[in-house]
C-alpha cells in the first residue's frame, strides 16, 4: 500500500467484494441493429473500389452518413466479394435504409438486396437439411362464434355444481333455461364427469375450459367438441390473452415450493415459455400472477422491485429496447400493477417504504432526514403512482402521495379514466381521509396526462365502495355514516374541466355493493350476505335517478351481469375447496346454493336451487366492432331498434301460446274420446243399468250433508312499473 494511505485499512473488507449484489453484471451485446448488409454488388478490383464506395455513399446519403465496409473475396483477393456492410448512427436509419433497398437495381446486371445483419445471422444458423414441423394440435376456428348468430339474440351461461357441468341458453320468452350441452357424450364414453375441477370461458367466449388433474381441455363449436388440451399437472387457474391466441396456466404454488407459470400457443398447443411463480400477484391469489396487455403483445410479471415485460413477438422473451438491451422497469417496493383495458399503458402503485439501511452511515452515526410515514413512522420515500407507456417506457404521469396507507387502482372500462383511490393517515396515525386521483387519459397535453385530486371524504361518513359506469363518464361512491351507520350512494360526472356531483340517494344500511351494467345507465345495489337486499336502479343521461324494483336473494354472494346488459344473475355459490377454510363457507352457503336470473328492470325470469353450486358464468363476448360513437348513437335511438325485437318476442309468445292451446286441445280430445268410448260400452251392456239405478237409490236414501269450501292460493304476482 502506498505510503500515507494506511488510514484506509480500517475501511477495507477481509472478504472479496460481491459485485453481483451491488449491480447487475455487464452483458456482452452481440447484436448489430445499426448494421445493414448489401448483397448483389458488382465484384470490382482495387482500381474501381473507391468509385463503387462513392456510389453507395451517394445512394444512402438520405439515411445519414453510414460507415461502409466492402470486403475483398477471401479466395480471390484481387476483387471484392460483392457485398458491403453499412453501419449507421441510429437504428431507425438502418431500418429505413433496409426498407428502401429490399430489392433495388444498381445497373442492368446488378440488383442490390438489403438485409439486417441480425436476420442474416439467423438465416445462416438454419440447417440445410429440411426438418418437417412437429405435429401439433392444429384446428380451425370456423364455427367458434356460432352462438353470436342466434336469431333470437339469446345469451349462454355455464354452471358448475356437484359433479355436473351444464351450458344453457337464457330464454326470456319461455322464462326458463334451455339446455345446450351437459357432457353427455363424455359420460357415455366412460368418463364420470365432464370436468373434474373448475370451468370457465375464454376471454372472448370462443372456448369453454375444463380443469382436470393432468391439465386443461378446450371445447368449442355448436356440439362442444374438444379441440385441444394442455398438460399442466394440478393446474389451478388460467388466463387467456385478449385475442385468445395465447394462454397462461398456473398451478397455484409459490416459487419456493416449485410453482410455475406456463405460456402456450392456443392453436398449436406449443409451450412457448415457463417461469417460476412471480413473487407479486397483481390480480388475486386465485388468478395467474401475470397480466396481459389489451393488444395481446405483452405479458407483465412482477417482483417486489421490478416489472418484467415479455414480448409475444419473441415467444415471450423479455422485451428489448431499440438498442437490443433488456427493458428493466424498476419500482422499489412495488405493490400493485394494472394495464389499461384498451391501451398498452401500465399503472404502478408503490406504497411508502422505509429507506434501505446503510451500514456505513450507521457506523458513523449519521442520520438521514426523515419524511412523514404512516402511524408516526419515518419514511424517506413517499408513495407514488406512475403511469407509463409500453414499449417506449414514456412516463405519462407521476403522482407522489405522502402519508398514504393504502390505494386501489381502478380503470374505466374503456380506458378513458384511471382512478387511484388513496387512504391517507395523519402524522399521529389517529385519523384518516380518502381521495381519488383522476387521470384523464384522453386529454393528454404535451405528452403528459392531467391528474385531478378529488376528495372522497363526506361529512362523518366513510368510503365503502367505488364503481365506474362501464360505458359512460360517471362513477358511484357508497358511503356509511360513522355515527348512525346510515348509507348513501353519491354519483359524479367527470366533465371536461371538473368532476361534477349529481343527486345522491339514501339506501338501506345492509347495502354494500354497486354493480353497473356493462352498457351503463342501469345498476344494481345489493347486500352481499345474509340480508340479500336488491335494488334495481337507473340513472339516465340527464342525471335522473329511478328505483325500478326492490327484491331480495337470501345469502347472496355473487352478482354477474350478462354482456348485453339485459339480464343479471344473483348467485349463492360455495368455493371448490376440499378441507380447510372451504368447508366453513360450504356449510354457510351450501343449503342456499343456487341462482336467480333477473331482467335489468328487476323482473325475475327464473330461479334454480343447485346443490353445491360452484360457479355461474355468462358466456363472454368479443370486443364490439362498432366505434364508441356508433354505440352511443344506437343507445340514443334504442327505441327504433327495440321495435324489431319486441315484434320478434311477441311472435314467439304467440307461437308458444298456440302450441300450448294445441297441446291442451289434443289432451281434451283424447279425454272426450275416452268418455265417449265408456258411454258406448255402457250402452252395449244393459245388464249393468239396474245396478246403477240401485246405487243411485241408495245414495238418495242416505242423509248426506253437502258442504262447499273455497280455498284460495296465490299462484303468481307481477308488478309492472309504468
Lay out the secondary structure.
Layout: H1 19-22, E1 35-39, H2 46-59, E2 67-69, E3 84-87, H3 91-100, E4 104-105, E5 111-116, H4 117-125, E6 155-161, E7 164-171, E8 176-181, H5 184-188, E9 199-201, E10 208-211, E11 215-220, E12 225-231, E13 237-240, E14 246-250, E15 260-265, E16 271-276, E17 291-292, E18 298-302, E19 306-311, E20 317-318, E21 329-330, E22 336-339, E23 345-350, H6 359-364, E24 383-389, E25 395-401, E26 404-411, E27 417-425, E28 432-440, E29 451-455, E30 461-468, E31 474-481, E32 487-494, E33 499-501, E34 505-507, E35 513-516, E36 522-526, E37 533-539, E38 545-552, E39 558-561, E40 567-572, H7 581-589, E41 594-599, E42 604-609, E43 613-618, H8 628-636, H9 638-684, H10 689-701
Antiparallel strand pairs: 1-3, 1-5, 2-3, 4-5, 6-7, 6-43, 7-8, 9-10, 10-11, 11-12, 13-14, 14-15, 15-16, 17-18, 18-19, 19-20, 19-21, 22-23, 23-24, 24-25, 26-27, 27-28, 28-29, 30-31, 31-32, 32-33, 32-34, 35-36, 36-37, 37-38, 39-40, 40-41, 41-42
How would you explain this protein's 3D organization?
It is a single chain. By secondary structure, the chain is of the alpha+beta class. Among the domains are: 35-125, RRM (RNA recognition motif) domain (Alpha-Beta Plaits, 2-Layer Sandwich); 350-358 and 372-451, no CATH class; 458-626, YVTN repeat-like/Quinoprotein amine dehydrogenase (Methylamine Dehydrogenase, Chain H); 637-683. 17% of the residues lie in helices and 33% in strands. The protein has a 5-stranded antiparallel β-sheet. The radius of gyration is 36 Å and the shape is globular.
